[in-house]
Amino acid sequence: MPPVVHKQNDNTKYNRINQIYEMLKNNVHGMTITELAKELDVSTKTIQRDLYEVLSDFGAIKEGRTWKIDPKLTQDNLASNEKLILGILDEMAKGVGGIFYSKAHSLLSQVTQQLEHPIFANINGEYLEEKSIALFEQIERAIKKKVEIKFDYENYNFHVKPLKLAFFDGFWYLLALHIGKEEDVFKKYHLKTIKNVQALEVNFEIPQIVEDRLRYANSVWFNLDEQFVVRLFVDKNIRKYFERKPLRGQTIIGEDRDGSIEIEIKLTHEMEIMPLILYYIPYIKVLEPQWLADDVKERVQEYLKEIL
Prior knowledge:
Number of domains: 3
Number of helices: 11
Low-confidence stretches: 1-11, 75-81, 117-121
Largest sheet: 5 strands, antiparallel
CATH architecture of the largest domain: 2-Layer Sandwich
């Protein structure tokens, strides 16, 4: 709502009306006339007059004893796909924990006024408590400023260059370069295990190769080693899953007559792909490299020996 046009000598009145509008807009459940009067330190008759004579023309509606700004006025300004995305984000936030969700829901509600959507998203992730969010924010600031940090982690103190905060398989991690005597070493730290973070007044730059590798991280197993190419045969029965949710850097390089496909992906560690291969056996097969195909075969054979 644009500021209400007013005469010069009515400045106090219309400042109050603008305040009422903002209070109603930001309160999803609405406010009573008594609550507004108490908040602005004026009489209930004054608030009542402002609502009926002015704000009712700007979307103020009465529901029972409370007043609110018609949510349709805000929601109609959002495209349907944008409202859907906000609804998905709101539902996903539930899986991160009560404290995180309460903050996220509050922010999203300010955008949409009310979040009513037929969406269910089961994000199986660890919960972030209040202290976890504070830690998240502290490290995020260091990453943005590109300053080195020190922290305690499993009874040891680490001095690192923080790179990214990453969410892999339901857990939050700090990706960083551990500062060594001779060279920096790429490491991953479970976020909630980090304690006593200290930001240092030492800036750093991220090497381009590190930035490039981070873009193609598929799991917490990835590292900064030389990449190798993996070629997989994907049976037609599971093809749709690799098309619906492609791996980072995945390329479809061929299609068989029966609908099966071959894909290629660049990795830095075999465990980036091994769990997925074992999950989809017998509908997936390693075509290249041979050492990875042999590793899968050995793992399956060892497992069969144990259960048979």
